[in-house]
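DM from R.C. (forwarded with permission)

"hey, sorry to bug you on a friday — could you get me a structure for this? deadline for the figure draft is monday and I only need the backbone to look sensible"
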Amino acid sequence: MRARSAGPLAPLLMAALLAGCASDAPTDRGQVRAAPAHQSELAQSELNRAATLAMRDNLHSLMLLADKLYRRNPGQWRAGGHASRELALQRLQQALDLREPWPALLGRRDIAAMALAMAPEFTGDRVAAFILASADMLITAHGGKTSFYLLDHLDAQRIYNAARNIETAAWILAQRRDARGHALLLADEIAADGTRNLSFEREFGKIIGRLDLLAELSDERMRRAAINWVQGVLGAGLLQFLPVK
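My reply, with the result:
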């Protein structure tokens, strides 16, 4: 007899399983952003799902950084030929979603594009170049994908390296100057009265934290698989049925 698929009932079944997880914790400072249940999740392990959500949030963080950088450096979206910051962000989001080549990066990808975007001699919209280069580096480190399923492999070391690249990018953003001694891009600042604006640092920190955790989870999965195999071999003799007559 052929088994019947859950079909359109799968999201409803998943929602029912989650119904008992409601919390009475305070929500005055926001709530957990939960993605709607989808049938594709049936082809995802817990690690696959964690990687997919982490990638979603990291790309969202990069777009938040783009908005912050455009606000502090309005000359950048003008250098890109846009009539407003909003239009520049829309174009940037489109290029990120479609992974379109960015002309100002001269065909470079990954860390080569990041290096060019933060070079003092770079001309054009540095914000767009920096954000798109960073996004391309993250996606490359995840095997060129933004969603992950059972047959996908995540390389823990590559993800770990991506976290260190973001650390380097944040340091360059804070420290590097052009020939006139001006910051390449204005970001975090400490005002004359001691007021500190560290919103950029916090957003970079979120990206780094997600990457480091995902790298550890990916490495742990491989180690646990090996340990479980050894335990199965060693315990095989203990799991045999004994004769009773």
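R.C.: lifesaver. The helical segments are 10-18, 46-72, 74-79, 85-98, 110-117, 126-141, 156-175, 199-235.
me: no worries. Strands lie at 189-190, 196-197.
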